[in-house]
Amino acid sequence: MTIRYLHTMVRVLDLEKSMAFYRLLGLEEIRRHVNDKGRFTLVFMAPPGQPDCPIELTYNWDGDTGLPSDSRHFGHLAYEVDDIYATCARLQAASVTINRPPRDGHMAFVRSPDNISIEILQKGPSLAPAEPWASMGNTGHW
Question: What is the pLDDT of residue 85?
């Protein structure tokens, strides 16, 4: 028996806002499915050159009133980056909420517009602690 990873799906409330967030992370749209009869759109986004690692953004045209208001029960997505400090600075400059800053040079958590936790991990060894991240404490609040 074999098993192969296909994708991770998250429901989004504002497709364009969510796509902009994932583009900011570095993902690109690799395919889209629009279902007029079912009144939904699926957008698959993945890191460049990694079409086998997509996230599926599911947008229901008529809204998702039956969903809990806090989608943190989902868990999180994780992405590896070349420079965690530069990535977090770029996200912060774009007003992305950083729940856990990269004070250890290794790991951070940011929040998508739909309250999905995104774990950002430093590729390779941790970077040396650097300001302003090192002095942000355990809460992640500025």
Answer: 95
